[in-house]
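For the sake of transparency, this paper describes our internal protein records without simplification. The remainder of this section carries one protein's record, kept here as part of the documentation:
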Amino acid sequence: MRIGQILVEAELVSPKQLSDGLEYGTAKGIFLGKAMKLLKFLEDDQIELALQTQQIIRRGLSPVLAIEALKKAVNEKLTLQQALQARIKEGATLKVNQNQVQDIAPVPVIDADSPDKLIENGDLLLIEDQCGQAESQYLKALLALEKTLGPGHLELCSVLIRLGNTLLATGRFEQAQEFYQRVLNIRLESLPPDHPQLANSYESFADLHKAQGDDAKSLEYFLKALDTLEKHLPQQLGAYASILRKVTAASVQAPPARPQPIGELLKMAGLLSDGELNTALRMSKQTEQPLGIVLRENCMVGDQEFQSALKAQFCVRQGVLSEQLAVDLLSRAARRGISLERLLHEAGVLMSDESKYETYREIAAELDRLVAAETSAVASQQELAPIAFKLGTLYEQVGDQPQAEIYYSRALKIWGSEIRGDMNAATTCRALARIYQAQNRYADAAPLLNKALEHHQHALGTNHEDTINTLEDLAEAEVALRQGKKAFAHAQIAVLTREELGHDGTKLWRAVVLSGDALADLKNYEAAQNAYKKAMGLAQTGYGGPSAALAAVMEKLGDLYERQELVKAATAQYKSALMILEAAGKIESQNAKNLQAKMSKLTKA
């Protein structure tokens, strides 16, 4: 019997756990027992008892009796021999040959000559720069694995890669290539054609050719690795970014005398056809307009693609990227629906905004941490969640909301949101809702805010600042969704709580404004007007004079008057709000421009 079957039939693991263990062991190149231990499905003594059970079944003992004894040994903390004798005394109906149960040899989980131990020794020797001795340990492990599993088993790849890396480090390129090729052949035979482990093999070949000075061949394999990993984003983004850094570092060269024009770069990247480019050039000449304007106005390329092409041209001119690689990365960015600048930021390669330079460096470091944790044999899913959350906050800081959404969502998926009072879940729900609200995706934000509110109320109580802030965020989302009754109820709870706590106008005015918004949605205009006037008083006293908060409430009151077709009253409010912004030194702000547009519209009407 296979060890996995024994574990399932003895009810030590579930079929799902066995499947996960087999998948994990294959991915990490380790034996099933070690995989089950690292996944925390089994303890050392349970694994040892299962191996002993397999041993006595091979000697001819009935599998039924052996598995019954295994279950008894685990449940009652007995040795397997004691459990077997006990089953016989209990009246096991099967005939047992006593020779089959005597002298059951302990089966160590990892003994000194096991492949796992040999590999571990090799790793330690390699760290100490003892390459020759490390190679010897790896070769012994390889021979042992081949004897047990055969020459083409996927579990051999782990030690074959180590041997290749060791030989590469000592300059024996041809021998290293033989091992890398063997790994690639096994993986191509055993895995789907786009499996991430194939990217690891392509990266090994790229490193080999780079060490031999063949940059063109090295780049070819690096790009092949990126092609494979692109199919597994965002899960493999850390590995993707790591290879991207190697690619860009390998492609630095002297700037060309005459870099390609924008149109040619777009065509070379497959974003513009010959016909489209020729038509655009002809139109540009006839209208005397720049090519970029012609391309965008006629929807031949999007603004993001054009900006990416400008960035590619800049990188080539500065010698940051070779022309070949700039074109390839331009194409990759378009396929992923992101800008070239963001693609380079993922790798920590190019920082156009100096104020964000350190944040991007931190992003690159966190991506490395994430991929290291993902590939670690001992890291749990719970250890990945804080790294994913940190990446979400960093991407949010640099204004990259799509990436922030990816990592906040990943952290929330790991942490879950069903355990009441879980503050990790609450914080992540609010962060993800914040991203959705910034994109006006209120229908996505509202359920998250409801869940965050539930956690805050359970863990922090109703009077905590985080609980009240979440209430207000939820009311804002409900106003946007035209759920006036719900919004008013939540806003009023926030108002009453803040008043009970004695909060000043700076903290109280937002909840009062939201009450007014909800009342306006319910067409209770008089009550809404009273709420806005109350909020204006709070803003005046709280901020001690003219402020953007006061102007915002005055604008809302103007909107309310306009909704009732009270044109003069609305115009007066907009004008007053504009004067407040001028007094606060914000006359050039977007809010001021919006007010001017509203006044102009009413004047024309």
